Model the fold of this input.
Amino acid sequence: MATQISTAAGTDRHVGSPRSRVDGPAKVTGLAKYAGEFTAADLVHGYVVGSTIARGTITGIDCAAAEAVPGVLKVLTHANRPDVSGKADSYRDMVGPPGTPLRPLYDANILFSGQPVALVLAEDFETARYAASLVKVTYAAETPETDIDALVPTAYDPPTKRDGIKPPPEPWGDADAAFGKAPIRVERQYRMANEHHNPMEPHASTVIVEADGTYTAYDKIQGVANSQQYLTGAFGLKPEQVRVMNPYLGGGFGAGLRPQYQLFLAMLAAKDLGRSVRVVLTREQMWSFTYRPEAVQTVSLGASPDGALQALRHDAVQGTSRYEDYQENIVNWSGTLYKCDNVKLTYRLAKLDTATPGDMRAPGAVSGLFAIESAMDELAVETGKDPIELRLINYTDSDPVEGKPYGSKALKSCFEQGAARFGWAKRDPKPRSMREGRELVGWGMASGIWEALMMPSSARAVLSADGKLEIGNSTGDIGTGTYTILTQIGADALGLPMEDVTTKLGDTNLAEAPVAGGSWTAASSGTAVMKACRNIAAQVFVLARQMENSPLANVDFERVVFTGGRIEVAGDPSRGVSIKDAMRAGGFETIEVTEKAGPDSDFAKQFECYTHQAVFVEVKVDEDLGQVRVTRVVSAIAAGKILNPKTARSQIIGATVMGIGSALHEESMLDHRLGRFMNRNLGEYHVPANADIHDLDVIFVDEEDKANPLGVKGVGEIGIVGTAAAIANAVFHATGKRVRDLPITIDKLL
Ligand code: MOS
Done:
């Protein structure tokens, strides 16, 4: 099995140390450019006209008034668009669910409110936007269905499973019979609202027509390879005809996993006009695609009086669109987290007249864990057990779903360390027992779990004779710190200061890598970068050894360390050669290596790999006003090796804030008569603001894992998974009111 990077390679040990973001200065000074900021001399601006109905057909589009506005070049619609592929398969991207992907401006068919029906092209954005208001579209409207409750009885098992999403396992034992016989029973329905990602940067694409007739597309995407695949498919282009770049992302959270329609429209217009085109969506238009879909869930827990689970059922019905079968793993977590002999997990879909939902930070786990971790809290109350004790009674060291041990699982340590830091031992279990002035105080906790994934990924590294290293691949840094951790890994592998390492990402001309998602980027790109740099290290070592009178002449590679720009015998710094001298002596200007890395299949056969969380929350609830404040959160995380405690902590802090949003604020409300999200702005869709956030504390619990050479499991999503349940449990402890539908708004407490 693989070695840890720090032993065989450099000793400078940036890996594991808190390091500030290498992309920080570019971001705070405005040098970092985003997809909607790239430009060209011939730039045209596109503005999208969205459908005002959710279901039906377009009967006519009158563009005359819009086209008469000075500065307007053209209005593209399904009726006058250039020829594009009609085959659904041409529009597939790397992460889309089964079904027929949206084909923008393809025909008169309307699938959801806000669907693009026209693109107004003008010399400037304001003109395009004004002219868009003059486009008159008439429809034959049909009655939309966007109410999941109406569809629960007819929910269906998706016939085609989504790649990478585990369907529910076959039931084991007899959960129905065991539940019927259990002395203690909890059966409840839970639900959470539709949520939209709302990254700070709205979706945007700028397609530049280059002098040689090729295209460069700057696209808001979490991995440019996906946009390139999409564009080559939909427009019949060869990969060398379209380079896609996205060096920086102003927040992704999953909203940038799939190419969105503004990319298609910008390319369509660029091809049609022969000019560069930029399409930026407005904040309101950000509600016309991908969202975390509402799920209606029922959890049934049967237990003995001492709290041991005898039956566990978890059923979820989740919304998808009429044209694609979007799927998440909502219910499997319940079977993975707890030991129980009788388990039944079921998941079905309901077809709504909305855009296809999409992955949003820890998709499935956020919804599913809210349900199971609320239900476990209710069982703790029923059995009179402390919530941690109940979880320990039902603890498992192997995955009951797959029947394999975990490669590592330090959840017990998360309970211990989190509880100690929080002061959990002082908790009076009685609801409404703690008070501070006019506020009720509540303490709640929950467990969290997320998959530790790795995807096949490549990386290129180039070492120059001046001792500088350049590394990179096409994945995106979605704000998580990928530039920084890859720089640390490269620097350590060759014993260089971080200043001498440049990391490049987000460009299809770089080594191919998957989208940044699923918390897999550190493991995937990190391992590929490490392999490429170790390969270079071995080559430089050979050059060093071949030098005249080399102090390393009879030394093996395993016995040297790379440090301070030198290759030295371990423990004897006097015997060494500088990297620069070795390169010059060998006559090399550069050494360039591209390496591929992928998951270790031997490891995967033996072990299951997950990250874990124990999250503790204090809330204060104003009894008269029903206002809830989350005054304290301690999130204890077990996620393998932490490459950079500073950027990793930021991931957990950010995810905790999103968890607070899920629990208390975020809710995209549908008007079912119109089939339309109503609160499409940040005034009416609440995300937590500074005043909502108080004391957030993060603990990383040590964990050794051998799933990959870095021992890393990923930290982007684990911080959100249990947070909303812990808040709801704390609200119950404060008030005695159990709220089972998120968000916990004031009206539900009064
Ligand atoms: Mo994440 S929802 O895989 O960007």
Residues 1-8 have pLDDT under 50 and may be disordered. The radius of gyration is 27 Å. The domain at 407-453+608-750 is CATH 3.30.365.10 (Aldehyde Oxidoreductase; domain 4). Residues 222, 252-254, 257, 359-361, 363, 517-518 surround dioxothiomolybdenum(VI) ion (CB under 6 Å).
